[in-house]
């Protein structure tokens, strides 16, 4: 749905990829957004016949909560 669904403000795909880029630039971590963005890029690459796409870089820090 994200890859192909247009909205009045533009394609969902563009919104998601831009959101992931801004979050990364701000140093924020949202694994859900980053995972979706990687999946959308992978699907786009497959449609275009591109192999070996580089995944989004890992977040700048470990966002996991340490166990107590």
Care to describe what's here?
This protein is mainly alpha-helical. The chain has a domain at 6-48. It has two helices and two strands. The protein has helices at residues 12-26, 31-48; strands at 6-7, 10-11. Helix 1 (12-26) packs across helix 2 (31-48). The longest helix is centred in the middle third of the chain and has 18 residues, at 31-48. The chain is globular and about 30 Å long. The mean pLDDT is 77.
Layout: helices, strands, pairs:
Blueprint: E1 6-7, E2 10-11, H1 12-26, H2 31-48
Antiparallel strand pairs: 1-2
Characterize this entry briefly.
The chain has a domain at 6-48. It is 49% helix and 6% strand.
Defining traits:
68 residues, mainly alpha, two-stranded antiparallel ribbon, 2 strands, 49% helix
- Rg, rounded, reads 14 Å
Strand content: 5-15%
* DSSP, total strands: 2
Q: What would you call the shape? A: globular
Largest sheet, in brief, is: 2 strands, antiparallel
Q: What helical percentage do the residues reach? A: 40-55%
By DSSP (H or I, 4+ residues per run), the number of helices equals 2
Walk across the major sheet and give the strand order.
Answer: 1-2
Low-pLDDT regions: none
Q: Which whole number gives the mean pLDDT?
A: 77
- What distance separates the N and C termini? 39 Å
The secondary structure category is mainly alpha
Order of helices and strands: EEHH
């Amino acid at each position: 749905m994200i890859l192909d669904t247009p909205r009045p403000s533009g394609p969902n795909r563009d919104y998601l990829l831009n959101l992931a880029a801004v979050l990364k630039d701000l140093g924020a971590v949202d694994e859900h957004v980053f995972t979706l963005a990687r999946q959308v890029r992978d699907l786009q690459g497959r449609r275009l016949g591109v192999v070996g796409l580089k995944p989004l870089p890992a977040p700048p820090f470990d966002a996991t909560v340490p166990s107590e």
